Amino acid sequence: MKKHLSRVLPLYVLLLLFTIFATSDATIRRRDYTVPTVYPELLKPLTPITTKDPQDIYINLVLSYTDLAPDGYTRKVWTANGQYPGPLIHCNRGDRLIINVTNNFEDPTTIHWHGIFQLGSNWYDGVGGQTQCAIPPGVSFIYNYTVGDQVGTYWWHSHYLAQYVDGIRGPLIINNPDDPYLGQYDYEYVLTLEDWYHAESHNLVAMRMTQGYEAFNPIPDSGLISGRGQYDCSRARNGTKCDPNNMPAIYTVTKGKKYRFRIINMSAEAFYFFSIDQHKLKVIEVDGVDIKAIELDVLPIHIGQRFSVIVEASQDSGNYWIRANIPIDCLMFGKYTINNNSAIFNNNNITGILQYDDASNDTLPKSVDWNRNLLPCHDLDINLIKPYVDVSPPLKVTDQINITVDIGEPDEKGTAKAYINGQSWVPDLKNPSIMKIMDQNISAKEFPLNANAYMYDNEGGAVEIVMYNTNQADHPFHLHGHNFFIIGMGRDGIPDSSKYNLKDPPMRDTVTLPPNGWVVIRYMINNPGVWAFHCHIEWHVEMGMVFQLIEMQSKLQTLKMPPSVKALCQPGSQHTKRLAIPFPDDGETTVTPGGYVIPKSGPTKRLAIPSPDDGATTVTPGGYVIPKSGSTKRSAIPSPDDGETTVTPGGYVIPKSGQKEGFTKRLAIPSPDDDNVTTVTPGGYVIPKPKEGSTKVKRTTERNIKYTTKRNAWKW
Ligand code: C2O
Ligand code: CU
């Protein structure tokens, strides 16, 4: 396999260069260095989950900076477990996910589980300024929630500033043991789409928000399929590393077999037309909702949206292009737009390869594109999407919210902002909404205007949200905590309630508000919490195109927020040396005498995070910690990939040196048994002590970057 790919690749690149630079004198630089490859597992079929009973799944996500070259150009990528895209989380319906996020960045962070309802666990939704205080650098925090009845295709990403654009994002797939389409495909693949920037997001945000800048969002440098893309290295700055022979995403198929592709758009800016030459896409799932199958040649997919399609390997054996076309029309830009000479204008047809396993190895696809007769930057027609199970939308509405979405008008300081009913959202990062409501008994009525909070309290009732777009941009709006029925959508005019579809509208959690158009959605009031609703174009988020829905505030106040969540908001309070790794007191877990946290029901099956060194436990070869029956003493933290980590004298688990590519600093959960090395925070987190004489480098200079060229000329 490897061998034939390396034969295909140079051809692939040649073809790219030929099509792109037929008139330029670009030269290919020699590959004289090595950079870790991106996450290869994503190109393999999913391992089927055959169990039915819900399980507790323990996951470590260790966040750190890693140099990677997703499109051939090496940059500092913000990674989880050293990988890009981030690790695939694959679980079963009903499973509990217990995810220990260790923040080894120099910035605070949060992780959001895009599409997961967090029924009764709003505080694990991961929205900085709304549902939690951020996880400080050096600190671990455990998200612990069940996926309930949800099934389908989701993803996870940082929800703090624009960090996900730098790499903190990965797929989350929930298997359905009763999948209605189970017999209709043989294998499952996950395929992600991402636009990619060579500059870090905080620099791009700073430029986007510079006073006087009104020239649209930053243009990405390239596009990726499952973390892999190509870049014209002749455009890379001197002194940077760039590999013009970067491997594209190659998915292998066997003739006659059927494949479920789970497609996720994890971008910051880009809308895509997805297609595979000569292969029809049978769409069976939209944003976690099974639908009656529809057959398409080309699939439109905006940021935050997901689809499952069944692809039959029914064509002549060979290689076929997988295409993720970014319509240039959807990238708004002008003369002064940040990165407006991006290479993407020469290569907006992002490609991977669908390869039949017995195909001739040395030829590139010669297949031709489908005809794209769809409107760019518009969702798949809502009249085509019918939920598999008939469900009717709420006919009566108890709460109606009207939202007008505006963009670009500079605030009094001259900074371009986005507005929801005239207000640009400002997160209260130090005292998020959930803390105000649950901890300080402050009603959302008293929130400042720029919190953009909208309340409704009628349990069992229904909300209708009517959204209007006053501008020419398309906005993929994503709702947290729910999916919704789209009962109407228009490209002009105003909503006409007599034309609403109240019979069989689509259900999803991300809908694109058309340019100068409108959308009407409804959903049931049944999930107490603070739920974000925002455009998923990350630059618009940073400009304030966000509002929050405060659902059943008084009911929310009766729920019990785990102390570990509160502790994130209480730096400097009293110092308790309790659990090494705090687990929430959610009634689901027990703490053993040795300080271990285990699931409550049944015998100890799998111990997530062991406390250090009480002489009472053993670690199995698989990395589970079990009560001792007379063997190994202590073994810090279990990792599912044993043989790859070492425990330091201070109790840190670190990667073994010289291990496989793309794998850095995987586990870094310190044990608290060494006072010289670790400190326990008030919330019970164990953090490394700063080393003697080392001072934290503040990145203020980098952050405050000012784009000074031609400032006055930026108005267009
Ligand atoms: Cu993908 Cu507010 O989320
Ligand atoms: Cu937007």
Automatic annotation (TrEMBL):
Record protein name field: Extracellular dihydrogeodin oxidase/laccase
Family as reported in the entry's similarity comment: Belongs to the multicopper oxidase family.
UniProt entry tagged with the keyword Transmembrane: no
Species of provenance: Gigaspora margarita
Region named Disordered: 594-695
UniProt xrefs under InterPro entries: Cu-oxidase-like_N, Cu-oxidase_2nd, Cu-oxidase_C, Cu-oxidase_fam, Cu_oxidase_CS, Cu_oxidase_Cu_BS, Cupredoxin
One Pfam match: Cu-oxidase_3
PROSITE patterns, alphabetized: MULTICOPPER_OXIDASE1, MULTICOPPER_OXIDASE2
Gene3D superfamilies listed in its UniProt record: Cupredoxins - blue copper proteins
